[in-house]
Amino acid sequence: MDVIFLSEVKVQTKLGVPAWERLLPQTIVLDIEMRYDLSKAGKTDSIADTVNYGAVVSRIRESLTKHSFRLVEALAEHVCQLILQEFGVLHVKIKVAKPGILPGLKALGVVIERSFQPLG
Fold it and tell me: Which residues of the chain fall below pLDDT 50?
């Protein structure tokens, strides 16, 4: 299966365990890998035959501005499910990094992977 990747996508959201940390939006960084069959797009050269990565980034940003999360795990799950449900990808891998949250620590975060599970 082919992979579309989005590297170091910066988004704003409210994230943190203490309530004060969720008062103002903060920047988080996402690395996203989406598995999708790109063979048709390679032949047709048509955006209709691939995942519109601009639409993916816009939708993630829109969603994260409306939500607040305590845990990076919950945020990562939210983004994975959004991509799987709205963009028809077969598998998604998300790395969520929350930069500079602790002194002497570049970032903290999680990496999760989820696959499309048809209902029924």
Answer: none
pLDDT for the residue numbered 119: 64
CATH number of 2-115: 3.30.1130.10
Q: What is the rounded average pLDDT for all residues in the chain?
A: 93
Q: Supply the Cα-derived Rg of the chain in whole angstroms.
A: 15
Taking alpha carbons only, the member of 36, 34, 32 closest to residue 7 is 32
Q: Give the integer Cα–Cα distance in Å for 78 and 5.
A: 18
DSSP state letter for 47: G
For 70, half-sphere exposure in the C-beta direction (CA atoms, 13 angstrom radius) is: 3
**Element (H or E) spanning 65, and its range?**
helix 53-66
C-alpha 17/C-alpha 69 separation (Å) is 8
In the block, residue with structure tokens 């940003």: 61
Q: For residue 68, what are its two tokens?
A: 């607040």
